[in-house]
Amino acid sequence: MFLERNPRFVSRLTRETLALIMAGGRGGRLSSLTDWRTKPAIPFGGKFRLIDFPLSNCINSGIRRVGILTQYKAHSLIQHVQRGWGFLRGEFGEFVELIPAQQRMDKPLWYSGTADSVYQNIDIIQAHDPSYVLILAGDHVYKMDYGAMIARHVESGADVTVGCVQVTLEQARAFGVMSVQEDGRVTALTEKPQQPEPMPGHDDVALVSMGIYVFNRDYLLQVLREDAENFASSRDFGRDVLPAAIGRDHVQAYPFSDPVSGKQAYWRDVGTVDAFYRANQELIQEEPELDLYDDEWPIWTYQAQLPPAKFMHDQRGKRGMAIDSMVSGGNIIAGASVRRSVLFSRVKVGPGAEVQEAVILPRVTVEDGCRIRRAVIDEGCRIPPGMVIGEDLETDRERFHVTPGGVVLVTAEMLGQEVAHVR
């Protein structure tokens, strides 16, 4: 449609778009993983952070004006963005701009909701003067061409377009559930219902919002000002702004699908420890749904210059090996066995240790003779010699956090160690 009309149509639209990534939330369902970092700063996939996915999607889509709204424990996020995302050229009107909560004089409060975080930065939106504003979450894992969504938004004549995916009814309780007409117009949006409404003809799935919105600039400013004057509002897009717009204005749905197969594309909300663990484990499958080795849609990030991973024997002749695993730079596997695991950078696994179905974040040391099963080990931990994790969940509950899915989360504090500087 739009490509047949004008081959430059999409690139013109993306140049006229300002993306705002909401990266200020804690993500409390992730337990102690967010005690010292905001959720978008959590490491993912061996070398990335969650924020890298929406940022890479923007760059790959041709959107080169991006603001990141920060608030909760943002130091490691700011550090990462400054180190890894400073390559855009300001003289060409390109930028990745960090926008911290500023406690404005007329409203000396932190952000009170997703809509409020954007409302408090209306002056910055106006200064950049975009035609369209793309609102993104900073903590989802997916690869998406935003240009196609913006083009569909313009062609439909919508005031706002909402990206959406299908999930099971059980999963839908954690999202905004949508009702949509055949032409894609949204007729209802219910935030986190206990009894989600299934899609017509599909009793086991519901259509939910991805937290991705394309707004016409002037329309966005209008609805944000209206919401700010509503004292009963919780200042949230999903709970307040969009439900108020449905029926009054044109709210359009954009199903997220693979451009080749037409099937629903990969998208994960890693909002719990179990979901975070599963999404990392999916990457070590023989043909994972999320292809991190795709040269046509690379995921960009910052990573320190590190030596290659090293596998070595110890003095007793035990072989260091990793099978069905992802192993990052700076790792040393010394006479240890690693299976079906994701090891981030600077991880050391000592002689006789066994690591299986684990996700081990940066700068972790696993000492001699440890056994680790189905666990997430947080950054900077030192697992003492001979410690066993993941084999006796009752014992693990006494000292660590055990999820409903039986995954053991271990942090330095839980081990009685000084909390490492989260980088």
TrEMBL record:
Boundaries of every Glucose-1-phosphate adenylyltransferase/Bifunctional protein GlmU-like C-terminal hexapeptide domain copy: 307-410
Family, as annotated: Belongs to the bacterial/plant glucose-1-phosphate adenylyltransferase family.
Subunit record text: Homotetramer.
Record protein name field: Glucose-1-phosphate adenylyltransferase
One GO term (biological process): glycogen biosynthetic process
Site features described as Could play a key role in the communication between the regulatory and the substrate sites, chain residue numbers: 71, 110
The enzyme's E.C. designation: 2.7.7.27
SUPFAM superfamilies, per database record: Nucleotide-diphospho-sugar transferases, Trimeric LpxA-like enzymes
PANTHER family: GLUCOSE-1-PHOSPHATE ADENYLYLTRANSFERASE, GLUCOSE-1-PHOSPHATE ADENYLYLTRANSFERASE-RELATED
Domain Nucleotidyl transferase: 19-285
Keywords, comma-separated and alphabetical: ATP-binding, Carbohydrate metabolism, Glycogen biosynthesis, Glycogen metabolism, Nucleotide-binding, Nucleotidyltransferase, Transferase
The species this protein was found in: Halorhodospira halophila (strain DSM 244 / SL1)
Protein residues bound to alpha-D-glucose 1-phosphate: 111, 176, 191-192, 209
